[in-house]
Amino acid sequence: MNTLHTLSRQQLELGAQVIIGYTPGSNGTSGTSRPPKPFFAQSPEEVEQLIFDDTCHYNLAVYLTKKEVTALGKRVLFATLPTLRSIIRLAVEHQVNEGDVAVIVRANDTEYALLNTLAEMETFLNGRTPAMSQEDREQLDALLAMNQEERWAFWKEAFETCIRCYACRQACPLCYCATCAATANQPQWIPVAQHALGNTEWHLMRAMHLAGRCITCGQCGEACPMGLPVHLLAFYLAETVQHEYGAASGLTLTETTPMSVYKPEDTTNFIR
Amino acid sequence: MPILVKLLQRTSYNSLIEKLLDEFQVYAPVKKGKQVLYERIRAVHDMETDYLLPVLSAKSLVFPPVETLFTFERKKEGVDVLPVAVENLPERVLLGVRPCDARGIAILRQTFAQEPVDAIFEARFNKTILIGLSCATADEACFCGNRAGDTTGSDILLTQVSNGDYLAEIITEKGQRLVERHADLFETPTELPDKAAFVATVRGLDNVENLPALLKAAFDSKVFDQQSLACIGCGTCTYVCPVCSCFDMQDETQGSKGRRVRCWDSCGFSCFTVHTSGHNPRETQGQRWRQRVMHKFSYLPESNHTFGCVGCGRCIRSCPVKLDISQLINQIAHV
Known about the structure:
Strand content of chain B: 15-25%
Oligomer: heterodimer
Largest sheet of chain B: 8 strands, mixed
Distance between the termini of chain A: 63 Å
Helix content of chain A: 25-40%
Structural class of chain B: alpha+beta
Number of domains of chain A: 2
Largest interface: A-B, 45 and 53 residues
Order of helices and strands of chain A: HEEHHEHEEHHHHHHH
């Protein structure tokens, strides 16, 4: 008996409305299977199609704030470490409440475990903070080694290539605003059109909104159809905030949001 | 049916490109970082030859993501409006365009050439010569239904045959004029190669002829809500699509001057149909997904007698959550 399927079925029996996990990708002309994709199992039969292995890494926490999904009722999510961090962060930001969601995690290579409470998720994360991938580390270091002019040229080209499909925003578990400043038109904060100016403002605004909140899953960069490493903007700010304030995001239920909290003992004095 | 069929040796193709570079702005697949995109080339070697499909379709060359429709200036006596000078648009040649993309442009043209004719699109289209290139291979996302050598939309379609030379099918008068100008580079074949042997076999959608009716019947079905649960509501599928043509209008002003731009928009966005009152007739992602499917496979067949999908598979390749329109449409076709 597959523990994953047993656990999932049990959860449906216990009142969860949907198990959000993964299923193998579709086959096409060449017969090769495409990567696993998110899958919503709402019946015991559908549970049979669920998989959760090394190839499954899409951050499913993005669905926790999607209204069509919250409307279904209690959700059980297959969670990787970044997914757990997203849930903790969403809880800190009052977007997820105790009891809204349980998760199934991979306890090790062969076993799965159910985490029912936010506290259990917090504990599971303890000591399991993954580092940035080597590719991201190298690319970020290469960017940091550039002088300002070179770095600007790099991002200028990237922003000119952007088509403003907002895949980065929509794939981000922490971009949950019902009305995004990028699409608001009363007032219009940044140009909507896909030109260099509008695109630059969009990406810089997004990066700043995520500073101190981003849990560095990298899903924004992965989602980008144009292959732009937009996640590195967020990663850099995450590192900067951690360095300045000693705070990483999405690890504890008691953490704050450094960029929106003022403390009298803050070392910077710009606000005084 | 082609007007003419010629042979173009591989070396002659390069000579042709060199000549075209002198006469036209030439666009072709170009490797940019990890991606291949249709971009302007300045030399033969700028062109990428190892590609299946550029990330963005050739749509962006006839219907760019953002373009100025007119400029305006407020003056004491009123507002001056200056239309874009379409006569200044450059003469262009698009090279290496895949048959699905060429077909996409033909479908787009049907949309933009309806009354009132879109003057900018039409002018750009008329000043563009499209030299297509048949596909020898396909990947798992392709679902054009054996149209890898289809001539629709191409002015000239090249198909690479056994020895690496090209079979050149001249489809339109635009293409014919180009060939006549460079007649020395083209040869008249003594024996025609079997084109079909050199183009890929590609799956298509199931039950295609009944799709419009099946979809109509499924309008109130829950299937659209179910299928779109995983959709995250970005605009990727519509922006990479060779056929999607929805756009937004924006006025961008600076002081007393400004311009009106047309920029791509997407029916996948939650705010796409929001009314001024705040009411949104397509409030859920299911309704928005249904609109995309209906538009492509029911409304366009009805109004323009063509599907709004060429089966290029770009939306499948680029979807952040790996939604597969071919699989989802087949699901509906088998309901």
